[in-house]
UniProtKB/TrEMBL annotation:
Assigned keywords, A-Z: Signal
A Pfam family: LptD_N
Signal sequence interval, chain numbering: 1-26
InterPro entries, per the entry: LPS_export_LptA (IPR052037), OstA-like_N (IPR005653)
Transport among keywords: no
UniProt name for this protein: Lipopolysaccharide export system protein LptA
Residue ranges of domain Organic solvent tolerance-like N-terminal in the record: 102-220
Length: 228
């Protein structure tokens, strides 16, 4: 369907906020396509509502769902119904996605987000693009090339490759043959490449088992874990 300029701008901004998680406002000069069974745009309130087989496309960005609502004045958006979002190397699915302001994205319901070698999944994902920080407050799983982390609450500082897990923590690494449990865990990738387990910590590698209130595993390049 063809859009007037007001609908086109609102759709472009919402699409970019979801797929860039607010890193930049939409370039309204780029072609934007909005397809839906019905589209309504209230120029006085700034609210655009698209219902039924909603698909928004801008260059390599695409998001689809059953219904989308975006307020151009408050920068708040909401898309629901088997949401699928793709942008370059990012692929995300969820029951619904909210945007709050220009930097906050919240995905609810069966959330799965893939980007490069990382997969984040859980019932709820909150992401702040200003800090590149992701929170899964109601349990979740992070899968990387190094292994898998699960917990009741997960935090991810994605730029620093730093993950924090709280409550019923379970860490596995097939590449290093490690299986670990604890109340809490701090994983540092990049240069440090270590994990700190605290509270009823247990770490197993090969035929060795270590227990303690605090275990620090230094993961070396050979696949072995040195313990402090």
């Amino acid at each position: 369907m063809k859009m007037n300029s007001g609908i086109k701008i609102a759709a472009a901004v919402f699409l970019t906020m979801v797929l860039y998680a607010g890193n930049a406002l939409a370039d309204t000069g780029k072609p934007t396509e909005l397809n839906a069974n019905t589209v309504e745009y209230d120029t006085s309130s700034g609210v655009i509502t698209a219902t039924g087989n909603v698909v928004m496309i801008q260059e390599s960005s695409r998001i689809s769902g059953a219904q989308a609502v975006y307020n151009s004045k408050t920068s708040e958006g909401h898309i629901t119904g088997n949401v699928v979002a793709d942008k370059e190397n990012l692929h995300m699915t969820a029951n619904e996605v909210f945007t709050q302001g220009s930097n906050m994205l919240i995905a609810n319901g069966n959330v799965v987000a893939h980007q490069l070698d990382k997969t984040i999944s859980g019932p709820r994902l909150e992401y702040n693009s200003d800090t590149n920080y992701a929170l899964m407050p109601n349990s979740g799983t992070i899968v990387t090339a190094e292994g898998t982390i699960t917990g009741n609450r997960l935090e991810a500082y994605l730029q620093d490759n730093h993950f924090i897990a709280v409550g019923n923590v379970h860490i596995t690494s097939q590449t290093r043959n490690i299986d670990a449990y604890s109340n809490n865990a701090d994983y540092y990738g990049n240069d440090n490449n270590k994990v700190i387990l605290t509270g009823n910590a247990v770490a197993m590698q090969d035929n060795n088992t270590l227990r303690g209130e605090k275990l620090t595993l230094y993961l070396n390049d050979t696949g072995q874990a040195a313990v402090k």
